[in-house]
Amino acid sequence: MIRVVVLGSGTSQGVPIIGCTCHTCMSTNPKDKRLRASVYIETQGKKILIDTSIDFRQQLLRANVTDLDAILYTHHHVDHIFGLDDLRQINQRHKKFVDVYGNPPTLDEIKLTFRYALDETLIKYMAVPLMHFNYLENKEFEAHGVKIMPIEVMHGKIKIFGYRIGKFAYITDASFIPDAEMEKLHGLDVLILNSLRHSPHPTHFSLKEATDIALKLKPKQTYFTHITHDLNNDETNATLPENIQLAYDGLEFTIE
User: What global pTM score does this model have?
Assistant: First the structure.
């Protein structure tokens, strides 16, 4: 069984956006309040996080997540990695390093951004996030016994990873999915896919583009994530099929 919790469903600015008074930003619907994109997964007794968003601390507190075995990184952009420092609380509480996984450009950028975390003296005193870096190729691997398939997609001009675990897949920040990678996404129960806004964007799928992909892949259920304030939850869902809907912070489901 796979348990999935959507920790954040928002784009890089989150929703509401600072200073904005649009319909969605002023909404009282909690589903229109979006932290930066991340999901938490439990399967085979292991606790797996995808991306340490800027809101990492708040998200883990809200979801009552107190331990992690592995972190899967999609890419190195700020909204997907900048919460990493709060990994220290997991390290200190459980007296352990946490395995982190990603493609070489992503992990190399994380090492640069968090270069203080590689200081041997600070590591000795557990004063920095403690990580074991695991460089991935675009092929199936195991993280603590859990089989995981990377899905290599394009985010504008850079190659990033989505991930498939069993009949669940998570892809964010994509603007193109090659045919060979689309083949890896058949037979899903649940797909979480990025859908930024109504209008086209050079590095993210629009609502129509994401919907077209969901209709082509035909998972039992699709949820859209990495959503800006352009997409009001209730109004957007009313235009979509019941098996294609916007994700929201706190959404939880299980897959057998």
Answer: 0.97
